[in-house]
């Protein structure tokens, strides 16, 4: 008989903690609502003791998400557990996830404790967490490098006091399929009360084996899989949940398991998370990459035309991928835009129709036709910018000569005033625009990363620019989207400047503007 595999999503905890720039509360809530729509059973949404921002987002998500179990992480420390419970107090029900390292390496060189002390700390903390909820999960951190005897000892003790989920993390992405199967099988054989808990695995992808290891764990009896959408996470990432979910569906004949995920939401969720986290999906990424369902070799194309099943094991519509549909133009009304968004599966609460329609008209004027992926990009890139923005682009012009100099002039609205500056450089037109912007704002920033990707297809694609800048030892993201890549580059920088502006002290900003003595036009 098939049995359910619980999908535990940690995009907003293990995934988010690996991003170079933290997400805002609004962005995290948007992701949490998408994950709820996708139907994840449990979502780990933060580590509330780690920062006031994390606490606030866990609190906000707990208030708004009703159909997935909310979970927060805590170390085996009273203050962590109490703070996690407090942050989730507005949820209908919640899970506390506590963790402690159990491998000899971690115990000796990190914690300086022996195994008896570890068992004592783990059980004391589990009892404290159980005072707040009957849904407590315990993770034996670095379990894949822990001896089987120690794992069995601690797991039995924790189940005895009422811990319902035992997680076996491969924290450093070290284990192999055989090893993880062996560990899970041994737990089932040697721990007498194992039937009173769910065994979970949490694999990292350092050797590219996270999904394979998770599937082996299911075959050995694990019934909860932890991971993130698109596999985002520390170092090489976590288990990509969409891959595990589809493996369970496509290979139900051999895995004898199912999930409660709404498969049609997979593609949309993956796209939104990629946009919000500023992490483009590689084209060859399984399930959600743009090439995942395209066939380029002639033999394959011929085979697919004769019968899709010859070379296609998944119908792309299963994950909610649709054929690209034309098309909206500047003559299309708000109702048509709303209709297309609904057709693509978005609820009205997912986006702001007024802002979307204004952006849509601007784009339709430039591009002529607007496609469904354009609408998505407008809804989830432009609308992420929290209003009101201090800096906005009024005008720019560039002149660039091959093997010569590039000159840019930029007019920037800063609050209520407009400033104009120009710059000339031998590094191309984008550098010239950035230098002109820098002359206006005078922020001492350095550009760490610049990435240009095409959103959409062929000549109708929009250019999306993602940048990362460093300012006062902090990293800030910027994203820009436009038909013209110079404009999207400028918009990305202005987005980053707005993020810096928000985080800066008002007086300091004024001081900088004054010191620079820039000419008001
Ligand atoms: O990788 C890990 O060990 C973790 C634990 C906190 C579960 O993320
Ligand atoms: Zn992890």
From TrEMBL:
Keyword terms: Amino-acid biosynthesis, Branched-chain amino acid biosynthesis, Cytoplasm, Leucine biosynthesis, Manganese, Metal-binding, Plasmid, Transferase
Record pathway: Amino-acid biosynthesis; L-leucine biosynthesis; L-leucine from 3-methyl-2-oxobutanoate: step 1/4
Protein's UniProt keywords contain Cytoplasm: yes
Compartmental location: Cytoplasm
SMART domains reported in the protein's UniProt record: LeuA_dimer (SM00917)
SUPFAM superfamilies: 2-isopropylmalate synthase LeuA, allosteric (dimerisation) domain (SSF110921), Aldolase (SSF51569)
Cofactor: Mn(2+)
Residues that, per the record, bind Mn(2+): 14, 202, 204, 238
Cellular component annotations (GO), alphabetically ordered: cytosol
Any GO molecular function: 2-isopropylmalate synthase activity
Any GO BP: L-leucine biosynthetic process
Regulatory domain as annotated region, ranges: 392-521
Subunit structure as annotated in this protein's UniProt entry: Homodimer.
HAMAP family for the chain: LeuA_type1
Protein name: 2-isopropylmalate synthase
Taxon lineage: Bacteria, Pseudomonadati, Pseudomonadota, Gammaproteobacteria, Enterobacterales
């Amino acid at each position: 008989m098939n049995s359910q595999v619980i999908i535990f999503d940690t995009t907003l905890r293990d995934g988010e903690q690996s991003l170079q720039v933290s997400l805002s509360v609004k962005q995290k809530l948007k992701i949490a609502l998408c994950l709820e729509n996708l139907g994840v059973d449990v979502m780990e949404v933060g580590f509330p003791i780690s920062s006031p921002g994390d606490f606030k987002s866990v609190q906000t998500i707990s208030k708004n998400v009703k159909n997935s179990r909310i979970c927060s992480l805590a170390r085996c420390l009273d203050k962590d557990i109490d703070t996690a419970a407090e942050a989730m107090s507005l949820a209908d029900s919640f899970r506390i996830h506590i963790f402690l390292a159990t491998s000899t390496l971690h115990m000796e060189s990190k914690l300086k404790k022996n195994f008896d002390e570890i068992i004592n700390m783990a059980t004391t903390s589990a009892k404290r967490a159980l005072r707040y909820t009957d849904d407590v999960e315990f993770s034996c951190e670095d379990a894949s490098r822990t001896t089987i005897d120690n794992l069995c000892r601690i797991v039995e003790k924790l189940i005895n006091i009422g811990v319902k989920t035992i997680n076996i993390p491969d924290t450093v992405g070290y284990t192999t399929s055989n090893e993880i199967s062996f560990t899970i099988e041994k737990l089932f054989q040697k721990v007498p009360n194992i039937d009173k808990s769910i065994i979970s695995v949490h694999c990292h992808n350092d050797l590219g084996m996270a999904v394979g290891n998770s599937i082996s764990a299911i075959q050995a009896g694990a019934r909860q899989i932890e991971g993130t959408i698109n596999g985002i996470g520390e170092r090489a990432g976590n288990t990509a949940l969409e891959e595990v979910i589809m493996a369970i569906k496509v290979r139900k004949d051999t895995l004898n398991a199912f999930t409660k995920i709404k498969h049609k939401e997979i593609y949309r969720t993956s796209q939104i998370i990629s946009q919000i986290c500023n992490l483009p999906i590689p084209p060859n990424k399984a399930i959600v990459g743009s090439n995942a369902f395209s066939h380029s070799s002639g033999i394959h194309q011929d085979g697919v035309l004769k019968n899709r099943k010859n070379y296609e094991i998944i119908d792309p519509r299963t994950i909610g991928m649709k054929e690209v549909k034309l098309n909206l133009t500047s003559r299309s009304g708000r109702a048509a835009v709303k209709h297309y968004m609904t057709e693509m599966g978005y609820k009205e609460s997912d986006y702001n129709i007024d802002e979307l329609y204004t952006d849509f008209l601007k784009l339709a004027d430039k591009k002529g036709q607007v496609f469904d992926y354009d609408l998505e990009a407008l809804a989830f890139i432009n609308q992420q910018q929290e209003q009101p923005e201090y800096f906005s682009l009024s005008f720019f012009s560039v002149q660039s000569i091959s093997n010569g100099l590039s000159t840019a002039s930029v007019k920037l609205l800063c609050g209520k005033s407009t400033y104009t500056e120009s710059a000339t450089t031998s590094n191309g037109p984008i550098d010239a625009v950035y230098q002109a912007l820098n002359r206006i704002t005078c922020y001492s920033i350095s550009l760490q990363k610049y990435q240009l990707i095409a959103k959409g297809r062929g000549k109708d694609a929009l250019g999306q620019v993602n940048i990362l800048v460093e300012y006062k030892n902090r990293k800030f993201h910027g994203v820009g989207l436009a038909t013209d890549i110079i404009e999207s580059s400028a918009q990305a920088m202005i987005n980053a400047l707005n993020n810096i502006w928000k985080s800066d002290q008002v007086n300091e900003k004024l001081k900088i503007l004054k010191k620079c003595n820039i000419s008001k036009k």
